[in-house]
Amino acid sequence: MNKESDMRREEEALLHTYNRFPVVLERGEGVYLYDTEDKKYLDFAAGIAVQALGYGNQKYNEALKKQIDKLLHTSNLYYNRPVTEAAEKLLAASGMDRVFFTNSGAEAIEGAIKAVKKYAYLRDGHTDHEIIAMNHSFHGRTLGALSVTGNKHYREAFEPLPGGVRFADFNDLKSVEREITDKTCAILFEVVQGEGGIYPATVEFMKGIKKLCKERGILLILDEIQCGMGRTGEMFAWQKYGVKPDLMTSAKALGCGVPVGAFLMAERVAKKSLEPGDHGTTYGGNPLVGAAVSAVLDIYQEMDLLSHVREVSSYLEQKLDALVKEYEFLTARRGVGLIQGVVTKKTVGTITAKALEKGLLIISAGSDVLRFVPPLVIEKEHVDEMIVKLKEALEELTFES
Ligand SMILES: *Cc1c(COP(=O)(O)O)cnc(C)c1O
Questions:
Q1: Is the CB of residue 194 below 6 angstroms from any atom belonging to ligand 1?
Q2: 161-185, pLDDT tens digit by residue?
Q3: Edge to edge, what strands does the sheet with 32-35 contain?
Q4: Does ligand 1 have an atom closer than 6 angstroms to the CB of 255?
Q5: Contact at 8 Å (CB) between 294 and 318?
Q6: Dihedral of CA 191/192/193/199: which sign?
Q7: H-only helix segments in 35-182
Q8: How far is it, in rounded angstroms, from Cα 74 to Cα 82?
Q9: Is residue 309 a contact partner of residue 253, using CB atoms and an 8 Å limit?
């Protein structure tokens, strides 16, 4: 068995929906991954912002192993203690009142959409409510999540998608205001647009939207799937702005590797939206993911991970700013905490491919942005190492072009 045969077998068996990097990853340790040939990679992708604790956290692994030996799954027809504990901890961390666990981010978005629609329906009995979402947003690949994803490239072949969605420009309050009608039941956006190119919401936008929602009786849904779970230095990015949503979604780092998402809401919404029979999931919130979420939230606290993110991210920002100054084809840095983007005039795919050769995993966001979403446990020395490797990659590009 070698790398080429591994890759060929996978290409022949799996549906070809990804153009993968030519590497077969096998194991992880701390903030490093190793491939089947034992080559070491510094991981600044974290499985797309999932592996917040890196790899091989003992406490996390032990919690999962213990739960596997006890009970994996029971369905939502019965009570289970791990999910109750996970829910209580997540509500405490978010200040929300109710949570529904899903198996992915897209399903969390689906659930939030259903909740706001049901809320609006119970309020006025109409069935033609609208949601305002943003251009360049990303909310997932299911049909409902695509219906609120403002990117033609992801949507076009799958039209018609569920309707009743209007798109406005992110960080443009006037543009959102223009799309409001008497049917608008919710406004949805990412506090930091991820796939769309790492654009943080402005303070004015966050506060302005909150005010609009209050005045017009519209629910605010914030998608924290990528930017949440500590990545910005707050548990959830909205906490930085002091703008609390009526509903929010989480996933990615929520389980640090087990497939779990969640949509959460205020009691006021919960009381008048989804009821028994309205929504369900076979796996969602089973004992295994309950144990994972619970362990993750405990570990965040014990490590004081949010303080760590604030400290190490300001160092990363300095280093990335210096990089942008140094290379004329790097034009800007955007981001908050450990979700950062660097805009490049050179093809982003060429850079990430070169970085891989140098033993660095980084990914893209949109067509021209290098995305940095490392494990939250990285140290300054890993930032230094990343910069060295990235420069090696960039130097070869400069040379070749
Ligand atoms: C990744 C992502 C999703 C979709 O999550 P999946 O688990 O891939 O379904 C939704 N919203 C945002 C902001 C994301 O980054």
A1: yes
A2: 999 999 999 999 999 999 999 999 9
A3: 25-29, 32-35, 40-43, 360-361
A4: no
A5: no
A6: positive
A7: 46-49, 58-70, 81-94, 105-124, 143-147, 152-155, 173-179
A8: 12
A9: no
- CA-based nearest residue to 55, from 70, 38, 33: 33
Determine if ligand 1 sits within 6 Å of the CB of residue 226. yes
* Mutation choice for ligand 1 from 226, 232, 254, CB with most ligand atoms inside 8 A: 226
Q: Determine the Cα angle at 339 with ends 218 and 134, to 5°.
A: 30
Residue 58 DSSP SS3: helix
Q: Is the CB of 140 under 6 A from ligand 1?
A: yes
pTM of full prediction above 0.90: yes
Per residue in 304-362, pLDDT (tens digit) is 999 999 999 999 999 999 999 999 999 999 999 999 999 999 999 999 999 999 999 99
Peptide bond into 259 cis (omega under 30): no
Pick the closest to residue 255 from 142, 138, 101, 362 (CA basis): 101
Evaluate: CB of 105 within 6 angstroms of ligand 1. Answer: yes
- Strand-pair partners of 27: 34
Nearest to 56 by CA among 36, 21, 20, 29: 29
Q: How far apart are CA 370 and CA 123, in angstroms?
A: 44
